[in-house]
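Dear U.,

Please find below the material for section 3 of the report. The protein was modelled together with zinc ion; I have listed the sequence and SMILES used, followed by the predicted complex structure.
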Amino acid sequence: MPEGPEVESVRQELLPLIKNRVKQIQLTPLSQKYPKYQNKQPSFDPFRKTILRDIYRYGKFLVWSFEGTKNVILNHLGMSGKWCFCEDLTTSQSDVTHPKVIIQMENPPHIIFSDTRNFGQFKVFKSYDEVMKYPPIKSLGIDGLEIPFPLVEFISRINHKRYEDKIIGELLLNQRLVAGVGNIYKAESLFQAKINPLRKVKTLSKKELEHLGIAISEVMQKALKDLGSSFDSLYTLPSGEAGNAQLWHNVYGRKGKQCNICGSEIEKITQKDRSTFFCSKCQQ
Ligand SMILES: [Zn+2]
């Protein structure tokens, strides 16, 4: 699933579209096979002939705003959502595997939202205020990509009584704590901080929490610099390029391989239905 660094990489590649005029936003015929898109066409009328003003990122969400309408679009890539540039809608649309939404610009490239597994979101809200009140946005914690990373706030948040009995490998996925962290960068951050994912928060010292906060920030920034992690075609940039962050992963996706530090086998366990990769020797 695209995490903060992947979503931010996509956003940055979409930014040159800003100030361009939108001809129309349309759902594809394929989208009509899925209940969440059915009969949603009229809600895209306000975006006709508007100008794309900006695209903001909140955790793993993108919010699209326009000149000419107060309506905004909330977009989540889900498991497999991706944006694809398309120069010519009549010929190159077939290159996109699961097109759900098309934003037709007055001047190409147009952009197509493809979503193979169909967990993505593309929702219209009446105003920016309204989308900011939407619970999954309103409840987001500090952003893992914030510079400088708010280390003091991270430690104060994680030390809240409600988290003391939580397992750190599970808690780090909670977007109320650090937004944008998902399964990949959770595992990599815990490895860098030398913390076992099975430990309870209350057993972590202040020094360990500091190391963890620094690790989250460093791992996410490094991933952003490498345009995110691409394991397959499910995450690519709008240009079709893949990210390179998977090339330096120490634990994620490396079950049974040798730890780069100590040579032990990397282990894979399941925590709340999500896989966690770690080295039990380096991460005590
Ligand atoms: Zn190791």
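For the text of the report, you could mention the following: The chain has two domains: 4-138, 143-278.

Regards,
Y.
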